[in-house]
Amino acid sequence: MNTDRTCNNSFWTKEEDKIFGNTLATKEDNNNLLEEMAKALPGKSVDDIKDQYNILIEDINAIKSRYVPLPNYLEIQN
Predict the structure, then answer these.
(1) How far is CA 31 from the centre of its chain?
(2) Which PANTHER family does this entry report, sorted A to Z (predicted)?
(3) Could you give the CA distance from residue 48 to residue 12 in angstroms, rounded to a whole number?
(4) SS3 (DSSP) at 45
(5) Axis crossing angle, helix 14-27 with helix 46-64, rounded to the nearest 10
(6) Where are the domains of the chain?
C-alpha cells in the first residue's frame, strides 16, 4: 500500500503522535485497538488513525528494506 501523505487531511501534532505511539505500544494486544486509539485521540477519526498506522508501517518497511539510510552519526572520541 502506498499511502499518499498529501491526501491525508488530518494534521498530526507532536503530542498526538506521542499519544498514538504510546497507545499502540501499550494496547497493541487489545482487540479493540482502534477504539482505544479513538478514545485517546478524540479529534481523530478511525480513518485518520488507520491512515497514520499505514504510514507507520510503510516507514518501518522502508527502514527494514534499507530504502531509508541510517544517519551518519559522528563518532565521539573519549
Answers:
(1) 18
(2) MYB FAMILY TRANSCRIPTION FACTOR-RELATED, MYB-LIKE DOMAIN-CONTAINING PROTEIN
(3) 9
(4) coil
(5) 80
(6) 32-66
